[in-house]
Structure formats: C-alpha cells, structure tokens
Amino acid sequence: MQSPLFSSIVGQGLAVAMLDKALERGPVHAYLLAGPPGVGKTEAALAFAAGLVCPQGGCGRCNTCRRVQEGIHPDVEWVAPEGNLYRLEEVQERISRHVAYRPYEADSRARVYVITEAERLRGAHGEPANHLLKTIEEPPRHAYFLLVTDQPQDMLSTIVSRCQVIEFRPVPVPVITADLMNRWGLPQAEAALFARVAEGDLEYARELARDEKVRHWRDRLLDMARDLPGAGPVMTEAAIDEVLAMAEQGSEELAAQMKEELERRLEWASDARDRNRLEKEHERLLKRRQRRLRTQRLGMVTRVFAGWYRDLALAAVGAEEAVLNRDRLAELRLAALPDGLPAYLDAVLAARRTRERLRYNVDARGAIGDMLRAIKEALTQWPLS
Ligand SMILES: [Zn+2]
Which of 49, 273, 322, 369 has the smallest CB count inside 10 Å? Predict the structure, then answer.
C-alpha cells in the first residue's frame, strides 16, 4: 500500500509510485526530481525525505514526518543558491562539510539534502557540481541527496548520470479541474477555466482558485496585454511600475507571517544552540521564500502576456476551441485580426524570451520594459488594419 505521505500529491502517478517503491525496497542515495514548475516536485521531495528520516519508514503521522513536511526538521537540509548560480563555497558549507555527521536527532534514520534549483549547480565553471559529485559518488550510509530542477536540460550530464531520475509531468487539465472543485470548492466552470489557463501548473491553478488578489492580477495583466498596442510611452512606464509593484507585493506579508512562526518555534527551543539554529534557518527560509515568490509573480507576468497573444493568434486563425483565456473570448474575437498572426507570434516569443531572461536576470525592470517594448514594436510593425 502506498505511504500516506504521498496522498496529497495530485496527477503524478508514476513519479509517486517510483518514490514509494524506493521507500519500500530500499532507496539509492541520489535522486533527481525533474519536471515543469508547479507540478509537485518540492512537495514530493519533502514527502520522500520524511519517509527516509521517519523511524517508522514514512508513517505520515509522527512528529518527524510532520516536521519534515513542514520543512523544519534538522535532519533535512534545504539547499538553495543565494545568487543566480551555486558557488563552490556554498556547496562545501551547506553539504560536504558536515555530510559525514550522524543525524542530528537520535531516532532519525537519515540526513537528507534537498538541493533545489539543481541546474544552477553548474556554477560559473562547473566546480560546485564537480565537488558535489565526489560526495554523491561515495556517500556516507545515512546521507541522501534529492536534487530538484525544472530545467533538466541545463543540468550537467555527469550529475544526472549519478542520480535516479524521477520525472514529473504537467498535471492534466481534468485532474486540476477536479482538484480545484474538491479541495477549494470551486464551481465547475471556474475550475475548468483556471485549470486550462494554468497549462498543467497545479500550483498556479490553486493560487488562482484560492487567492482573489492573484485573480485580480491576472485580469489586470490581460487588460495590459490587450491595451498595449495603443499605449503611449507614459502608459507603458506606468505598466512597468504596476507590474513590478505586483511582483514585490506579498513579500512583507510573508515576512510577518514567518516571524510569527519563528516566535512559536523558539518557545520550544531546548537551548541557546537550538535557538541559534532556528533563527539562522528562519533567515534562510525567509530569503528563499521571498525570492521564490518574486520569481513566481514575474513568471506569471510573462505567462499571462504569452497566453494573451497566443490566444489572439488562435482567434485570428479561427481556432477558438484551443483558446486558454475562455473568459475573454468576446474580447479576443474583437481584437484578433486575420493578418495579425505573425505579429502575435512575435509577441508570444518576446514574452517567452523574457521568462527565460528573468530566470537569471536580476534586473526585472529592464527585462519587463524590454518585453513591453518588443511586443509593442511587433504589433505596430505589421500593417494591422
Ligand atoms: Zn513518521
């Protein structure tokens, strides 16, 4: 029977079955969880880590399982790059320096390193990856490495070949629709719309379902995309400001909320050393979550823009059944011009290019500005009548 740890992971039958079997039959020391963003890789990594550390092999009910899944167990080390790429020193300090130590808690069966954004391990010249490789090749008995990536094509093959690869797929639209209806109580039509718009990204679909603000942003971004062709320079600047404000929003809320969590945890700390550890962990966790939130928000901007122009292209060629933003079908029909197709496709490409750039580029203002200008140029260049 499947471990209850995996019960909340939706639409990843094969990946979950492989991880579950590994817990049952004996895991290897390194896994690569690879697949598109928002499909449950991190959640699965935590569930699997709980199974490795739990004294009962992943009961899903004990204190150990609970803390691992909340990301606060001392024997599950979360590793994320501080900058765009991992540095050698980060890998040394966070992993190899203490990999030989026994688990921190007496009843833990393992120490697990969850290495996020693993494609960034290649660093500037491959040193972080090569350094980690040595550790992975001869791991201490109690150490496990769960590498997570949504850009597997950017991974160094030497690392990939040392890991058992667990592939995650986009979550099918009907599965997302059912999840939104059952878990968040959405009416069918709305659930189906968000499932479609999310294109397999369950996390984004859930955000749309439960967060009114996110729904509002989607509407605003679609309006901006619609109005961009007629927008003057002042309006375009205002759009950039609005988009960036959107990306920053929620960051302070998150900090306040996590501060409360920290206070609660500190009450349970056993001694000064433990307090210190919790505070350090908190700092790192906060930075990581804030960065992730910002990246997600900026990703949403390029996604919504790409989606709008893709829909315009579909509407222009009369393929309305494939439109993502069904709630905007009337506007799309009005706006789509049959001879606009090349321009719409250029606009889609500009948005996708920006998405790639934003993954490594810290200058969000520059990247978003370039995107809006490139799209505007594409749309005005063609003789759209
Ligand atoms: Zn347990």
Answer: 273
